[in-house]
Design a protein that fits this description.
With 307 residues, this protein is an alpha/beta fold. It has one domain: Alpha-Beta Barrel (TIM Barrel). A seven-stranded parallel sheet has the order 1-7-6-5-4-3-2, with helices on one face. Helix 8 packs parallel to helix 9. The longest helix is centred in the C-terminal third of the chain and has 16 residues. The chain is globular, with a radius of gyration of 18 Å. The chain starts with 6 loop residues before the first strand and ends in a 13-residue tail after the last helix.
């Protein structure tokens, strides 16, 4: 299935049972709910999906469950990250065999170095299949920063590199990439509390986090921003920002899962080394979520053309 990089593409959480096994039954249900709400793809196995805590076989099983949950309605775009290039390439190929529509290519876990080595790593993953790929640039989390000129170099060498998830937190990167390569790549924002600004700068898609708990609001915010409905966008954005900022701190996984629990679509379980938040940290997070729920706006937006 062809990937449409425009729209809201949820970077989903990985749900766990009480025994911390992957909860495949809920995962399929969650994916279907997100698509029913207007999301244009499902993106498992990212940092929000606790990918580093998952075994290789668990990752493939998650991809298969996501595909079952969405049927043929939207593509699944698998996050590809590993400690070694060889394992990342193997994961990309197995994900392709499992029927994903595209790949989100990350730099290697732990090891961050110069452009020559990082280019060789992500280039090997992009070239491992013929699937459309999105490069994930997140220097805050992974300490590897793919600069606009380096992204342009990759785009010139790999025809199946179709998009970049820009999570540097600097929306000026959107215009810098556009200045170098025009419309060659679709640019998606990967930082929840920069979505309106990034779209104004030229981004066309959103790899979203809080969408796992608030899909209708996420889709509405994206549509308002992309359609230039400025007043509606900023009214919804003002309500949403305290929630969206939960995606920008080290414990974003725990916080987003807590939000899912609050809306009845998931639980707060995480795999160690992460632990569920407690004490004042928990009280502060619940206050943010409870306030948002108490003042939650009604949104209604047409999803025509979204997917």
């Amino acid at each position: 299935m062809k990937v449409n990089w425009r729209g809201v593409l949820p970077a989903i959480t990985t749900p766990f049972t009480a025994e911390l096994a992957v909860d495949h039954e809920f995962l399929a249900k969650h994916c279907a709910w997100l698509v029913d709400s207007g999301c244009g793809a499902i993106v498992p196995l990212g940092s929000l999906g606790e990918s580093a805590t998952l075994s290789f076989e668990e990752k493939i099983a998650i991809v298969q469950t996501c595909r079952r949950g969405v049927s043929d309605r939207v593509p699944v775009v698998a996050g590809i990250a590993a400690l070694s290039t060889a394992e990342a390439v193997r994961l990309a190929r197995r994900a392709a065999e499992a029927g994903v529509g595209g790949l989100m290519v990350l730099p290697p876990y732990v090891y961050s170095t110069d452009w020559r080595e990082m280019k060789a790593h992500v280039g090997a993953v992009i070239a491992a299949t013929g699937l459309p790929c999105m490069l994930y640039n997140n220097p805050v989390a992974y300490k590897t920063d793919f600069l606009p000129e380096q992204i342009a170099e990759l785009a010139a060498e790999h025809v199946n590199l179709q998009a970049v998830k820009e999570s540097s937190t600097d929306v000026r990167r959107v215009t810098a990439i556009r200045a170098l390569i025009g419309e060659r790549l679709d640019i998606l924002v990967g930082v929840d509390d920069a979505i309106v600004e990034a779209i104004a700068a030229g981004a066309v898609g959103w790899i979203a986090g809080l969408v796992s708990a608030f899909p209708a609001e996420s889709v509405a915010l994206y549509r308002y921003a992309i359609e230039g409905r400025t007043q509606e966008a900023f009214e919804l954005y003002r309500w949403f920002l305290p929630l969206l900022r939960l995606d920008t701190v080290p414990k974003f996984v725990q916080l987003i899962k807590l939000a899912q629990e609050a809306v009845g679509m998931g639980n707060a379980r995480v795999r160690p080394p992460r632990l569920e938040i407690v004490g004042s940290e928990l009280a502060e997070a619940r206050a943010v979520i409870d306030t948002a729920l108490a003042t939650r706006p009604k949104v209604q937006v047409s999803y025509a053309g979204q997917r």
